[in-house]
Write a structure and sequence with these properties.
The chain has about 180 residues and is α/β, with parallel strands linked by helices. Helix content is about 35%, strand content about 20%. The chain has a five-stranded mixed sheet. Helix 2 crosses helix 5.
């Protein structure tokens, strides 16, 4: 049986958060939260992006994606800064999110899709001549069960990620993460 909440989320996402329905315009920040929303904690990146979209902060575009695809490069092209948010399998010692500044990586350009934002940055640079300064935030998670909701660990990580993103998108935070 299909969960009514997920149907409502899908309808809202299609209506409000569909980047194809928006004009392409310069913005300061693009936040891309990605992961499989059918696999429990793997959805945490998308959930962070959807929460951020509800802030409706000027100059910030939040996109929720199942995976990183070449088509996302067109949204990175006009941005000054990008933040990628994804789940990471937690070990017993790691309970906090990890944030790091990343650069384009041309090790292997993507064919289809990739889980590596550095490759997407390289593709953006190759296609458009530049790419934004970027950060990659990974949230430690434990459960990837089909259909499961976020675990308490993932919910705490999402809240921490939103606080961290808020600090990054402040004018001073953009230069000193």
């Amino acid at each position: 049986m299909i969960n009514q909440r997920h149907m409502a989320n899908d309808e809202r996402r299609a209506a409000d958060d569909d980047p194809a329905s928006r004009e392409l315009h310069p913005c300061c920040f693009v936040v891309i939260g990605y992961g499989n929303d059918l696999r429990g904690d793997d959805a945490v990146g998308q959930r962070v992006a959807m929460s951020l979209a509800r802030w409706r902060q000027p100059g910030v575009l939040a996109l929720a994606a199942h995976q990183l695809t070449p088509e996302l490069a067109r949204w990175l092209m006009p941005a000054k800064f990008a933040i990628f948010v994804d789940a990471a399998c937690a070990d017993d010692q790691s309970q906090s999110l990890h944030s790091r500044r990343i650069e384009p990586s041309s090790v292997q350009l993507m064919h289809g899709h990739t889980g590596d934002p550095q490759v997407l940055l390289a593709l953006t640079q190759l296609a458009y001549g530049s790419c934004p300064l970027a950060w990659w935030i990974t949230i430690p998670v434990r459960h990837f069960d089909f259909g499961a909701d976020l675990s308490p660990t993932a919910r705490r990580g999402a809240a921490a990620a939103l606080r961290h993103i808020r600090a990054l998108i402040r004018p001073a935070g953009a230069h000193n993460p």
